[in-house]
Design a protein that fits this description.
The structure is a single chain. 23% of the residues lie in helices and 37% in strands. The chain is an alpha+beta fold. It has one domain: Alpha-Beta Plaits, CATH 3.30.70.120. Helix 1 runs antiparallel to helix 2.
């Protein structure tokens, strides 16, 4: 199994969710996060004073899929989240050793 973590722009969440639904993937965890990469934040003016906003609001999506579905899931997320502009985000893929459904005790792929 693979855990796919995607950090994307907030306005792309609906596009990614819809694309994953079309792929048959419905389970995900979504978190509002802040961070920065190469875009290094931006400047804003508040009450006449200029200040730097170092952390940019982003959305973190976490999905766990079988090894067989990982590549198509990654491709789907990448295509749906891509705007072609700086700050589109990152996708991280890690191996998952075990999954357990709390309610039933199911393990492995059946727990997804």
């Amino acid at each position: 199994m693979k855990k796919i973590e995607a950090i994307i722009k907030p306005f792309k969440l609906d596009d990614v969710k819809e694309a994953l639904s079309e792929l048959g993937i419905y389970g995900m965890t979504v978190t509002e996060v802040n961070g920065y990469g190469r875009q290094k934040g931006h400047k804003e003016i508040y009450r006449g004073a200029e200040y730097v906003v170092d952390f940019v609001p982003k959305i973190k999506i976490e999905i766990v899929v079988s090894d067989e579905r990982a590549d198509e899931t990654i491709k789907t997320v990448r295509n749906a989240a891509n705007s072609g502009k700086i700050g589109d985000g990152k996708i991280f893929v890690t191996a998952v050793e075990q999954v357990i459904r709390v309610r039933t005790g199911e393990t492995g792929i059946e727990a997804l």
